[in-house]
Design brief:
By secondary structure, the chain is of the alpha/beta class. It folds into 3 domains: about 200 residues, 3-Layer(aba) Sandwich (Rossmann fold); about 90 residues, NAD(P)-binding Rossmann-like Domain (Rossmann fold, 3-Layer(aba) Sandwich), CATH 3.40.50.720; about 140 residues, Rossmann fold. It contains 16 helices and 14 strands. Strand 7, helix 7 and strand 8 form a beta-alpha-beta unit. Helix 1 packs across helix 3, helix 4 packs parallel to helix 5 and helix 8 crosses helix 10.
Length: about 425
């Protein structure tokens, strides 16, 4: 089976590599010539655990190829996945310019039946518009070629994307024809031999499912952060509260961990887009607007704790940050709380020393020379007046506290992920502050 995937970002590259891994002949397409040339040489544009080895293995086997020309693969591909970026526009809605360009290119160049599958996260109704764009281009050519459109939203967690794709808990597919359903079943069957969990539905429902899933997870995060902030004011312990409510099978434990807000490429963008879609349909998503507001406020909570500890006197203080990416196992800093923290710290006159295992280069693009990027986690703490744990990378979990005590100018820890024990650190002479206690 031969397929093409347009877009070699996070979703497109993972999708292409994983399909190639089970024997599909995959061609990944991107208009960025430098990125394509780098991929041909085995240079990855993103960090994702296990991705580089999988890409190299399948390129060597001849199952995974890269090109800048979608036109050159349309006469061979049975399925074309559109996995191009849909960044937020100025009004919060998804910017679909790349989606339309893919559709136009297909319509102008297709020579036989093809199934066009939207993998990008797009507003409800996009697939119908893609069909119209392709048909318009075919009409201009006077060509009578059958095609189908489908929606196959991704549910990949950054840092665990390959496992999520290879062993999915479900695959959501929106189709409008039996032919499209058979093609998608054939494509996904190797991943689901023991338990075929492809959920077929109409296209609009599939498009909405992606947004609804992310909106629910984001809501749980913001809800728990709101509860955590109230716990601090009332003397309750958010960890005990979380255990108490998480034991209720109707609620469960996932996404109930308090912290410093969600970031990344999905939740912030998708919440904004869903709110915008509602507004376009004359409806106001009041719950999601509150979710977004709570999250934006939460990104500043460590700064406010720091400000309170030093009585507002932050000028000239050195602050160490452990972690920059929005979550562990990724170099993604899009909408990351670290960027808000850095901005506020620098504005307050602080010197910032930061360390992250993989995200420092991405962060440097945003901050330039305004931040010192450390050689390692302990270098970041040199003469620091306080340390902020921003991202819970594994290597931060059991540090050498005696070394830290000697390295820092002032032994103060602000734990944005609640991974340390207050009693232990206070016994070692640290001042310790976390979320929700």
């Amino acid at each position: 089976m031969k397929i093409a995937i347009v877009g070699t970002g996070y979703v497109g590259l993972v999708t292409g590599a994983c399909f190639a891994e089970i024997g599909v002949e995959v061609t990944c397409v991107d208009t960025d010539k430098d990125k394509i040339e780098a991929l041909k040489k085995g240079v990855m544009p993103i960090y994702e655990n296990g991705l580089e080895d999988m890409v190299l293995r399948n390129v060597k086997a001849g199952r995974l190829n890269f090109t800048t020309s979608l036109e050159s693969v349309l006469d061979k591909a049975e399925v074309v996945f559109s996995a191009v970026g849909t960044p937020p526009g100025e009004d919060g809605g998804a910017d679909l310019r790349y989606v339309w360009e893919v559709a136009r290119t297909i319509g102008r160049n297709m020579t036989k039946y093809v199934l066009v599958v939207t993998k990008s996260t797009v507003p409800v109704g996009t697939a119908a518009k893609i069909r119209a764009v392709i048909q318009e281009e075919l009409d201009k050519r006077g060509a009578h070629i059958e095609f189908d459109v489908a929606s196959n939203p991704e549910f990949l967690k950054e840092g665990n994307a390959i496992n999520d794709f290879i062993s999915p808990d479900r695959v959501v597919v929106g189709v409008e024809s039996e032919r499209a359903e058979k093609l998608m079943s054939k494509l996904y069957k190797p991943f689901l031999l023991n338990n075929f969990r492809v959920i077929f539905m109409d296209i609009s429902s599939a498009e909405m499912t992606k947004y609804a899933a992310n909106a629910m997870l984001a809501t749980r995060i913001s809800f728990m952060n709101d509860i955590a902030n109230l716990c601090e004011l009332t003397g309750a312990d958010v960890n005990m509260v979380r255990n108490g409510i998480g034991s209720d099978t109707r609620i469960g434990r996932k996404f109930l961990y308090p912290g410093i807000g969600y970031g990344g490429s999905c939740f912030p963008k998708d919440i904004k887009a869903l709110i915008r879609t509602a507004e376009q349909n004359g409806y106001h998503m009041r719950v999601l607007k509150a979710v977004e507001e709570v999250n934006e406020n939460q990104k500043s909570i460590l700064f406010h704790k720091l400000e309170k500890y030093f009585d507002g006197n932050l000028e000239g203080r050195t602050i160490a940050l452990w972690g920059l990416s929005f979550k562990p196992e990724t170099d993604d800093i899009r909408e990351a709380p670290s960027l808000i923290l850095i901005e506020k710290l620098l504005s307050a006159g602080c010197k910032v020393r930061a360390y992250d295992p993989v995200a420092m280069e991405e962060s440097r693009i945003k901050t330039g020379n305004s931040v010192y990027y450390a050689r390692d986690m302990y270098d970041a703490l040199l003469d620091a007046d306080a340390m902020m744990l921003v991202t819970e990378w594994k290597e931060f979990r059991l540090p050498s506290w005696p070394v830290i005590r000697k390295t820092m100018a002032s032994p103060v820890i602000f734990d944005g992920r609640n991974i340390y024990e207050k009693k232990e650190l206070e016994e070692l002479g640290f001042a310790y502050y976390c979320i929700g206690k």
